[in-house]
Amino acid sequence: MATEVESLNAHDGVFLLDGALVDGEVDEAYVDDCEALAEAEANGNWTPQEKALHEARLKAKAKRRLRRTSPKGKLNGNDRKSRMGKGRGLPKKGGAGGKGVWGAAGMVYEMEEPDARDPNYDESSQGDTVYATVVPELDERDLEKTVNPIVQEYFEHGDTREVQMLLKELNLGSNKYEFSSLAVSLSLEGKASHRELTSRLLSDLVGKGLSEDDMARAFDKMLQDLPDLILDTPDAPQMLGQFIARAVADHALPMEFLGRYKGRVDCDHARAALDRAAVLLSMKREIVRLDNVWGVGGGQRPVKHLIKEMNLLLKEYLVSGEVSEAEQCLRDLEVPHFHHELVYEAVVMVLESKGETAVQMMVKLLKAFWKTGLITLDQMNRGFNRVYVELPDITLDVPHAHIILETFVDLCYQESVITKHLRDACPSRGRKRFVSEGDGGKIKN
């Protein structure tokens, strides 16, 4: 066995795993083990399996001893040199990389944002959690469905602040200018009061959700869409011109808006709208704000002005006799809650008139208004009751007012303009008369 140990392969005085030399010196423990193995083999006490197991143990023991005693750079298990014969033998990333490594010397670490995917991420230690509501941007179709109810409701209440709050809740994105064009389109199909409210809304929204550029884009689109708008609103060019003039005067549109179109307009309708706006802006007395371009509509008018308009309406009717024209004028005033004033003025005008013509014409007019529903039962009753209450004062100027009123009330009842209860409520002055001498000269009522 000693002979076999001496015959093991060696390289540079160092046996590779199987030798008994370490740097040229004999490992005595290894030699003793080999002698014990040879003696046991000679006595025939070991089986082949025991012999193989013992040899493996000896090899492993020699390998461990070799690792502990080998010099630096030779058969070192911690050597970073590539086993494939590649590289220069330097550590990876200069010793600053790899798992569990702090990095190179002198490296300064910055604060890193916590990663929610990190298994050690603790949500409670990150402070208060803020949840934000993301509103998707409205496309063109959804924009129209959302904006139309807002504008229609605004025509009822007239509060521009509420519209501003509703617009802040919407994500209009790059289609903000579409709101102005939709509002103007709806007002073109409505009343004069709606157009007045729309002009005020556009003026109030500039700088509070919409810019002058957004407003200019909206009117550019309106000018391009005029051929389609005329189909529903024949007066669309003139109305749009008034909108442009009012917007420029209210500083909702830039002053140079009209100058952009000089010599560049091919559409006759757009040219008519721009000419209308230029005429209004070039009027005398240098109008700063065209506040009356749409008139003062609806209940926003002063009461005295409404009374004057209704008196003028009745006088024109007595001259022309056109019931349809009077009806249209009354509708244009847009004050259905104030129609009792028309009834009152009509009855007073009958009491102050001379002849039967005014009586017959006024009965005809009130009957037409009653049939069309323009004047309701409540408004009719309120108008007549006002006359009944003020009849004593009216009698001072018109002595025969009682007689005329009774005749007029009877005619209205016959034409089903008023109810029987209202006819019976008409005051009548008791007439004193002298009876014949045969009655004793007594005065009877």
UniProtKB/TrEMBL annotation:
Organism superkingdom: Eukaryota
The keyword Zinc-finger belongs to this UniProt entry's keyword annotation: no
Keyword terms, alphabetized: Cytoplasm, Nucleus, Repeat
GO-annotated cellular components: cytosol; nucleus
InterPro entries: ARM-type_fold (IPR016024), Initiation_fac_eIF4g_MI (IPR003891), PDCD4 (IPR039778)
Pfam families associated with the record: MA3
Compartment list: Cytoplasm
Region of interest (Disordered), residue spans: 58-96
Biased composition, class Basic residues, residue ranges: 59-71
Domain MI: 142-263, 305-428
Ranges in a coiled coil: none
GO terms of biological process kind: negative regulation of DNA-templated transcription
Similarity comment text for this entry: Belongs to the PDCD4 family.
Name under which the protein is recorded: Programmed cell death protein 4
Organism listed in the record: Anguilla anguilla (European freshwater eel)
